[in-house]
């Protein structure tokens, strides 16, 4: 009886024991299932992104043909009316169209800032379309547009690189042949960064070798400081510097003294 019981116990343990390859088989099934699901998800996401990019390029191409090709050519090759746009990148397109400078209202020494003609979605589509025709500067990352950099370093960089045209207070100034450096009050961080990166019109290009992204962010911080900080000296007279201040004193100050002198003389007589 004891022998039969021992044999029965061994037989039951053998029946309940897993095969040595069962664990390996389970791992293989799990890995295959997980990998397949990941591959399916990734391919779907990639397909959706590709379709979205293709849709933007197609939409941007239609907008470009309707609004820009007359001057810049259907293939961005340029013409006597406008420069070639191959290789200018998304940043240049976003700046020019996003500030209303393009399409031009009329031919002149430089494009005037005016109300924007397109929606944000249309501007994005145009930027993607132009960028698809040749590599160029991309739209800056949000991390450089917060306005939370080093304001003192930004002020120094602005004074050295920008103040000779835009004025140390960003009020703008006249250039040659009817051109001018625009005032920078109220310019969005994205457009300020894009202008430094692409050098629109007479402005030089400050690529990342000239000014690093962090230094551009510091300059944007300084411009934000100018916008938010009131003048400690009172009336700014347009922040145009000592020439405008001297002219104001010459005309109004001396004029007031002459008027008071004339009035006192007339009263005494």
UniProtKB/TrEMBL annotation:
GO terms for cellular component: plasma membrane. Heme c 2 binds at residues 162, 165-166. One of its GO terms (molecular function) is quinol-cytochrome-c reductase activity. It is an enzyme of class 7 (translocase). It catalyses: a quinol + 2 Fe(III)-[cytochrome c](out) = a quinone + 2 Fe(II)-[cytochrome c](out) + 2 H(+)(out). InterPro entries: bc1_cytC-su, Cyt_c-like_dom, Cyt_c-like_dom_sf, Cytochrome_c_Oxidase_Subunit. Binds 2 heme c groups covalently per subunit. Its main location: membrane. Heme c 1 binds at residues 68, 71-72. Keywords: Cell membrane, Electron transport, Heme, Iron, Membrane, Metal-binding, Repeat, Respiratory chain, Translocase, Transmembrane, Transmembrane helix, Transport. It is found in: Cell membrane. It is a multi-pass membrane protein. Residues 55-134, 149-227 form the Cytochrome c domain. SUPFAM superfamilies: Cytochrome c. Its EC number is 7.1.1.8. The chain crosses the membrane at residues 247-266. The keyword Chaperone does not apply. It comes from the Bacteria. The cytochrome bc1 complex is composed of a cytochrome b (QcrB), the Rieske iron-sulfur protein (QcrA) and a diheme cytochrome c (QcrC) subunit. This is Cytochrome bc1 complex cytochrome c subunit. It comes from Rhodoglobus vestalii.
């Amino acid at each position: 009886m004891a022998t039969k019981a021992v044999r029965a116990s061994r037989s039951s343990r053998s029946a309940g024991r897993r095969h040595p390859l069962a664990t390996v088989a389970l791992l293989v099934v799990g890995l295959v299932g997980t990998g397949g699901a990941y591959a399916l998800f990734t391919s779907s996401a990639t397909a959706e992104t590709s379709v979205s990019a293709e849709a933007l390029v197609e939409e941007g191409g239609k907008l470009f043909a309707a609004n820009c090709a007359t001057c810049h050519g259907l293939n961005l090759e340029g013409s006597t009316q406008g420069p070639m746009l191959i290789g200018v990148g998304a940043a240049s397109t976003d700046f020019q169209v996003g500030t209303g400078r393009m399409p031009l209202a009329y031919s002149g020494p430089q494009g005037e800032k005016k109300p924007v003609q397109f929606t944000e979605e249309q501007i994005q589509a145009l930027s993607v379309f132009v960028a698809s025709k040749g590599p160029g500067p991309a739209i800056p990352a949000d991390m450089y547009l917060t306005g939370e950099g080093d304001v003192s370093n930004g002020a120094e960089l602005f004074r050295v690189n920008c103040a000779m045209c835009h004025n140390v207070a960003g009020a703008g100034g006249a250039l040659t042949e009817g051109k001018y450096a625009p005032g920078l009050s109220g310019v969005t961080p994205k457009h300020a960064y894009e202008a430094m990166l692409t050098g629109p019109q007479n402005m030089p290009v400050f690529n990342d070798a000239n000014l690093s992204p962090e230094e551009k962010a510091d300059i944007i911080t300084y411009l934000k400081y100018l916008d938010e900080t009131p003048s400690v000296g009172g009336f700014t007279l347009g922040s145009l510097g000592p020439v405008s201040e001297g002219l104001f004193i010459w005309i109004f100050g001396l004029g007031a003294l002459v008027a008071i002198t004339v009035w006192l003389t007339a009263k005494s007589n």
